[in-house]
C-alpha cells in the first residue's frame, strides 16, 4: 500500500477572470505529484460532498443555507473574499469531504494527505479570509460522531492563526488546538487557541524549526490524541505575499519531515491538509505545497505504514 492521497477535479472551480485567489493550484498540484512520480494515479481517492447534517455539526443551518443559495449579504461575502458561484459551493463541499476522507484514511493507514483543505478562518456562522466551511473542525467532529476518535490534536502551522478553529473548540477539552503563526498578521483580532505560539516577523528556518521542536513533542505526550490533523500552510515562506516570515523551500520540507516523524514515531496517525499559500508565481507555489506530499511519501515508506 502506498501513501493515500485525496484529490478531486472539482477543486478547480471557475472564478471571474483576473481574480487572484489561486484556484488552479489544486489541479496543478495533482499534476505535479504525478509528473514528478511522487505519487501514482492509484494512490488517489475521490471524496464526496458531505451530508448537510455533518456540516451542521460546526456551522449554523442559516449560514449554510445562505451560502448554498448565494443569499449571503454583501458584507458577509466580502469577509469571505471569494465571489459566490454554484461551482465554488461544489468545490467548498468537496474539499470538506476530502478532509473527512483523509482523516478516515489516516486512521486506517497511519498517514494520509489531502491536496486541498485548511480553511481555518471559518466560524460557525460566517466565513472569513477565503474560508467558507471549516474543514478541520468538521472532520474532527464527524470522526467523533462516528466513534472513530475521542481526542484530536490540530496542529496549525499556517502563517495565520487558526482563529475560527480556536473559537469553535474553545470550550471543548477533546479537541486541542495548537497554532504557530506570525504575530503581526491576519487576523487582526486573534482568538485563544489551547496553545498559541506567536512568531516574530522575518523568522527564518532554524529558529522556526527549533521553536516547533520545543513544543510539539510535549503536546503529543501530554494530550495523547487519537488523531493529528495537520494544517501545513506554506505561507510562512519568504516568497509568500501574505506571509511575513522567511522560511525557504528547504525549511518548509524540513518542517514537514519534523512534524510527521515526531508524530508517527510516537504512534500517532496524521491527516494532512495543504493550508494557505499566496504567490504570484503559481509554479513556485504549487511546488511548495508539494513538499508536504514529498515528505509524507518518504516518511510513509520509512515507517512501512
Give a description of the structure.
With 305 residues, the protein is α/β, with parallel strands linked by helices. The chain has helices at residues 25-35, 52-55, 61-69, 74-80, 86-109, 135-145, 163-168, 205-223, 249-264, 282-302, and strands at residues 5-6, 44-45, 111-114, 152-156, 175-182, 195-199, 227-231, 270-273. Strands 2-1-3-8-7-4-5-6 form an eight-stranded parallel β-sheet, sandwiched between helices. Strand 1, helix 1 and strand 2 form a beta-alpha-beta unit. The longest helix is centred in the first third of the chain and has 24 residues, at 86-109.
Instruction: Give the strand order of the largest sheet, numbering strands 1, 2, ... along the chain.
Output: 2-1-3-8-7-4-5-6
Backbone CA Rg: 17 Å
Strand content: 5-15%
> At the fourth CATH level, what is the homologous superfamily?
Histone deacetylase domain
| Cα distance spanning the termini | 8 Å
What level of helicity do the residues show?
40-55%
Return residue spans where pLDDT drops below 50 for at least 5 consecutive residues: 10-22
Largest sheet: 8 strands, parallel
CATH topology: Arginase, Chain A
Query: Based on CA inertia axes, which overall geometry fits?
Result: globular
The total of helices stands at: 10
Number of strands: 8
Give me the secondary-structure category: alpha/beta
In total, the number of domains comes to 1
Reading off the top of the CATH hierarchy, the class is best stated as Alpha Beta
Summarize model confidence as the mean pLDDT.
93
Helix/strand order, N-terminal first = EHEHHHHEHEHEEHEHEH
What's the CATH architecture name? 3-Layer(aba) Sandwich
